[in-house]
């Protein structure tokens, strides 16, 4: 350590210009060289280092500013999306409520339609039954009429004598004749 302080003290005592030699004290020469290099670096590199640090500082500030702008934009977009989400949720609730009421309405429409269809089918069934009853009644009436006519013809044929037969025919011809005169 004494050598280091001696080297600094000896800096003030330079020998005269006539002598040149090697300083074998490694610590003293390294410190001198290091201080000279640092001095030169500080003197000449101060501007470059200052510019590099200023550029780096500007890049960092720009990056922070951009990040803040992106963050602001992202927050803005997030709020827009949240607003749209709220609107969609409200619309979904309305669709759900409307869907349920639409389902109820369709259910009642279907029930009413089915009831009307059943009424129509019941009416068709009743009409078909009445038609079949009338047809059956007509068939029975025709049979009864045919049987009565056959019975009457049988009775007439058995009771009719040729003379009564001729009088009946004459009376009928007379009736048809008088009907014909009335029509003319």
TrEMBL record:
Record's HAMAP family? ATP_synth_b_bprime
What's the protein called, per UniProt?
ATP synthase CF0 subunit I
**Recorded GO MF terms:** proton transmembrane transporter activity
Q: Please name the taxonomic classification of the source.
A: Eukaryota, Viridiplantae, Streptophyta, Embryophyta, Tracheophyta
**Got a GO cellular component term for this one?**
proton-transporting ATP synthase complex
InterPro entries linked: ATP_synth_b/b'su_bac/chlpt
Instruction: State the organism of origin.
Output: Bonnetia paniculata
List keywords of the entry alphabetically: ATP synthesis, CF(0), Hydrogen ion transport, Ion transport, Membrane, Plastid, Transmembrane, Transmembrane helix, Transport
Q: Which CDD domains match?
A: ATP-synt_Fo_b
């Amino acid at each position: 350590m004494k050598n280091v302080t001696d080297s600094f003290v000896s800096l003030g005592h330079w020998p005269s210009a006539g002598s040149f030699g090697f300083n074998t004290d490694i610590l003293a020469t390294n410190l001198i060289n290091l201080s000279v290099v640092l001095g030169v670096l500080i003197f000449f590199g101060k501007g470059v280092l200052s510019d590099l640090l200023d550029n780096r500082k500007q890049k960092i500030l720009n990056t922070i500013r951009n990040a803040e702008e992106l963050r602001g934009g992202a927050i803005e977009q997030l709020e827009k999306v949240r607003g749209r989400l709220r609107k969609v949720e409200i619309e979904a609730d309305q669709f759900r409520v409307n869907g349920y009421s639409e389902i109820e309405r369709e259910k009642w429409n279907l029930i009413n339609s089915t009831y009307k269809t059943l009424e129509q089918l019941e009416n068709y069934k009743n009409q078909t039954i009445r038609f079949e009853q009338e047809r059956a009644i007509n068939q029975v009436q025709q049979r009864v009429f045919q049987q009565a006519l056959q019975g009457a013809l049988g009775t007439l044929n058995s009771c009719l004598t040729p003379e009564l037969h001729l009088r009946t025919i004459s009376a009928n011809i007379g009736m048809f004749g008088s009907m014909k005169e009335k029509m003319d």
